[in-house]
Design a protein that fits this description.
binds zinc ion, mainly alpha, flat
């Protein structure tokens, strides 16, 4: 596992997270599955993330954090859609 370590910059990582968030927002069904599966087990570890070999199974895991962010983004978008802007006339042609 030498060679790849440190190759990913923080910026690249953030871009990947943004992409993952956008993807989940566009897949509400998948987002719900992720939220349902990536929960803490009795030991406070993620129940869905793969084994402890990488030592990164602590909960909330990265996937869960991304999903939580997607929920916020989705809620914000939903909130906007819920509030009809009366100033905008309907497209009746
Ligand atoms: Zn997880």
């Amino acid at each position: 596992m030498v060679g790849h370590a440190g190759a990913v910059s923080t910026q690249e990582l953030l871009a990947e997270i943004d992409a993952a968030v956008a993807f989940l927002v566009g897949q509400p069904g998948l987002l719900d599955v992720v939220l349902a599966e990536h929960v803490a087990d009795a030991g406070g570890m993620c129940a869905a993330c793969p084994g402890p070999q990488s030592g990164r199974r602590r909960w909330p895991c990265t996937v869960r954090l991304i999903a939580a962010r997607a929920v916020r983004v989705r809620a914000a978008a939903h909130d906007r859609a819920d509030r009809p802007t009366s100033a905008e006339p309907e497209n009746a042609s």
